[in-house]
Description:
The protein is α/β, with parallel strands linked by helices. Helices cover 44% and strands 12% of the residues. It has helices spanning 15-31, 55-63, 79-85, 95-98, 111-114, 120-126, 130-135, 139-153; strands at 2-5, 41-44, 66-69, 89-92, 115-117. It has a three-stranded parallel beta sheet. Strands 1-2 form a two-stranded parallel sheet. Strand 3, helix 3 and strand 4 (89-92) form a beta-alpha-beta unit. The protein starts with a strand and ends with a helix. The model has no long low-confidence stretch (mean pLDDT 81).
Amino acid sequence: MLFTGGxxxxxNPNIRRSIRLECENATSMNATGSGYSNFCEFVDCLNGICExxxxxxxxxxxxxxxxxxxxxxxxxxxxxxxxxxxxxxxxFFEEISAKKQYTWxxxxxxxxxxxxxxxxxxxxxxxVRILDxxxxxxxxxxxxxxxxxLIFNYGF
Length: 156
């Protein structure tokens, strides 16, 4: 899974902080030889450092199966379109970020075909691990979702 963005440094519980901590823990677990291996990457684009260097985030997107799309200051994220262009399965944490933002481009009834929804309340408040949810998706379904994401490329 991949998260490109900034934030997550606040001591207050929030989805970006939960993602950052989970990625850091997955990396730590990997270093000890147990847990997930290369399943979580965090590309920190804080302070606009990715604005003039799209390779910084597009190369990891092309290699990732899942791209995390937490809302930030607004529910909308440009990286959602970057992720689709890379053939990455979108992972949403809020309904408004998922099915309500881009209905003129992406019909609401199509979202389940190329995305995954995990409630931010479950992740932040109930301790649901994003990696566990994503790893429980059968490989054949992951393949279908990636294929569907790539099909949407032709609509942009």
